[in-house]
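User: My instructor asked us to take a sequence, write out its structure as tokens, and then describe one feature of it. I'm not sure where to start. Here is the sequence I was given:
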Amino acid sequence: MDSLKQAVLAYTSRHANSHGMAITPVPGLRMMCLEAPSGELHSVYKPLICLVLQGAKRLIVGNEERVFSTGQSVLVSADMPVIGRVVQASRYEPYLAIAVELEMATLRELTAHIGSPRPRRPSEMPTLFAVDTEAALLNCASRLMHLLDRPEAAPLLSPGIMRELHYWLLSGPHSTALRALADPDSHASRLAAAIAILRAEYRSRVSVERLAAEAGMSLSSFHKHFKHMTSLTPGQYQKRLRLVEARRLMLDEGASATSAAFEVGYESVSQFTRDYGRLFQAPPKRDVLRGRKPAEHRPSPLAVPIMA
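Assistant: Let's start with the prediction itself. The structure tokens for your sequence are:
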């Protein structure tokens, strides 16, 4: 694991933003390095696997809150608003992690080949959990990182490595949750179709009736399962998408609160300000000034989307 940690340190020192996050040219691969405990970072994750290489981080996803530390792999099994805070990091032992977004098409194809046992009921299915990272996953991550130094090879080799990584995930402790996600008849998969609409059209008014129809559920069933999985109503979920994107526009692109509010679909700046303050515990201008302050032991900034 030491060589993998050194690779993450080297890449993030050149490419991480002020939150310590760095995207890469390899699709779905990103990483984080922070040399001090952080404040809360609000994001919207796609389903992903995160390998914690060093340090510890607290994540709040829906109604679940867990601290994950060195040597664990964390699965977020649905499109979820996430609140993260690095709780263990120092200049000499920074927090280091690699995240890989999951590819639904690959999961479904491999699940069909492997065979899928009957998934657990939604009430038994965690949205967030971690296990000790298996050597096969670290090996795949190392080979993906190696491709960053060989950009000409990445388009040819990364799909095969990603496919192998998904196979090991489906064969390991994360298997049950991933197979349920890959099952087109599962609640998780059906809700994912509705969430895809919210993510794509978060600036616009989206009727709950349309979302329920996309998920193939009655209105009452859709509300119940959506709230169970995300801890939010569809309206609250869409509002979270808007606010996270507005914050990114202000922090990374220098947008004013007014322009950010209208850009993400708000019709009232005063309503935007109230909603923003409730989520981020500060009005937009103060929060952005706080977020733009240079922090010690952080890599040099590079704007990357927070909505990952």
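For the description part of your assignment, you could build on this observation: Residues 294-308 have pLDDT under 50 and may be disordered. Try explaining in your own words what that tells you about the chain.
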